[in-house]
Specification:
The protein is an all-alpha fold. 79% of the residues lie in helices and 0% in strands.
Length: 452
């Protein structure tokens, strides 16, 4: 063995001397010991002995530490090459990543979880062990919550737990629908199929959320831009006109005087000292009032009555409900449990109450479509297809078709709403800016007519 990698010459000499001594003990019992001793003596001539006892003791301590380190690395390498690779990696990553220290596990984006679930299903289907598949996703995912949760799930499975038991420990990452599908897949031995179904379900939910967010992004951006423009005009533009009007001494029209007063108010510090606490008080009052059940119920009912939001809310709720119920029913989850889980994917309380009625009617032995037929907010086509699915015994296939239909309807409604809102918002901005410009130039027209 060559000790050239040791930079300290004294330590290198000591290691060489110890190696030669070990070799001497081995070669003494050999028939060719004389030749070996001659070779060893020649090498010993180049080794400098350490005479200082304190230095020798310190060097021995360094050698002991180095030997322990080398033995540990050799053992780890041997386990890595010959042992359970998945278990070894799990043992190395028990602690949270630095980005997760001192923080709760947060729900990852629906799209990221859908991609991870789809990858897991594909790897299991190709024959890769579940532990190794979970570790690969944990190492390749960019989301911290997915990295940590999948790593901990792999560790729990390696210690004898089932996947559904480990998923129950992370409700922030995996909702009740996800856990129910995995549990049904493990019980039936169809885990890859249920994971594929879960991935498609998450992709459809992410698609609906994306459409709604894209529809809201444009009006929010326009409203923010309008507010910023008006604020800048009030602070920097209007004071220039005020100086001109003060020099003329003419009386200002009512609308101009109102804008001038508002501009002076925005420039005063006392206004912000009152406005900021008032704004916080209004915000907390809004949160308190909006958390009351009667207010939430009124808000959800109002959304289903307004012409602009009625179709979008109805179609998005029915799409979420249909897709979730279809996936759970196809995986073998009992219909009552599937309805309870599907209810949690719907944000509107009116539709939640309808699902509660369906749950009660099924327990009483009545068909589902009877409840739907009595509700005016449920479209006739939805009720009819539900009835056909129940009577023909193909409820899962029929609900899947309903989910596809209503997801397409949500996309079409969002596009139509966006196309209508764009010109309306442009008119809205133009009206605000136009009112300010007219209010500022109106005194000028009055002064010009007086001078004429």
């Amino acid at each position: 063995m060559d000790y050239k990698y040791i930079h300290n010459p004294k330590l290198r000499g000591l290691m060489e001397k110890a190696r030669i001594r070990r070799k001497v003990k081995v070669t003494n019992s050999d028939s060719d010991s004389e030749n070996e001793n001659q070779i060893i003596q020649k090498k010993m001539e180049n080794v400098l002995p350490v005479k200082n006892k304190r230095v020798r003791k310190r060097q021995k301590a360094k050698i002991s530490i180095l030997k322990t380190y080398v033995d540990q690395k050799i053992k780890e390498r041997k386990e890595y090459l010959e042992g359970d690779m998945g278990g070894l990696r799990a043992k190395k990553q028990i602690v949270k990543p630095k980005s997760m220290e001192g923080r709760r596990v947060k729900a990852p984006p629906t799209k990221d979880l859908a991609v991870a679930t789809k990858q897991l299903a594909s790897m299991i289907r190709t024959g890769l062990p579940l532990l190794e598949a979970l570790k690969i996703i944990s190492e390749t995912s960019e989301n911290t919550s997915i990295q940590y949760s999948f790593n901990e799930i792999a560790l729990g499975i390696s210690q004898g737990s089932t996947m559904s038991e480990m998923l129950d420990k992370y409700p922030e990452v995996f909702n009740e629908m996800y856990r129910a599908l995995v549990s049904a897949g493990e019980t039936a031995g169809l885990l890859p199929d249920t994971l594929d179904r879960q991935a498609k379900l998450l992709e459809s939910l992410a698609k609906i959320k994306g459409h709604i967010k894209s529809a809201l992004a444009y009006p929010i951006a326009i409203a923010t831009l309008t507010t910023v423009v008006i604020f800048l005009m009030m602070i920097f533009v209007i004071p220039i006109f005020v100086e001109i009007y003060d020099q003329s001494g003419a009386d200002l029209p009512a609308i101009t005087q109102m804008l001038v007063d508002f501009s002076e108010l925005l420039k005063s510090v006392a206004f912000y000292l009152k406005a900021i606490p008032t704004g916080f008080a209004i915000y907390w009052l809004y949160r308190y009032i909006s958390s009351k059940p009667i207010v939430l119920w009124w808000y959800d009912k109002t959304l289903l009555k307004l012409p602009i939001t009625k179709d979008l809310v109805t179609k998005s709720c029915l799409a979420n409900f249909s897709r979730t119920l279809s996936s759970l029913n196809s995986a073998g989850v009992p219909i009552l449990e599937a309805l309870s889980i599907a209810k949690r994917t719907i944000s509107n309380r009116v539709f939640g109450r309808i699902i509660d009625k369906m749950h009660s009617d099924i327990q009483s032995g009545n068909p589902i479509y009877r409840v739907l037929d009595q509700e005016p907010v449920i479209p006739i086509m939805f009720t009819s297809m539900f009835r056909i699915g129940e009577e023909t015994g193909e409820l899962s296939q029929m609900i899947t078709k309903l989910a596809d239909f209503y997801e397409d309807e949500v996309s079409a409604s969002v596009k139509a709403l966006t196309s209508i809102m764009e010109p309306l918002l442009i008119v809205f901005v133009a009206v605000f800016v136009g009112v300010i410009l007219i209010a500022m130039y109106l005194p000028m027209f009055s002064m010009m007519s007086t001078a004429g």
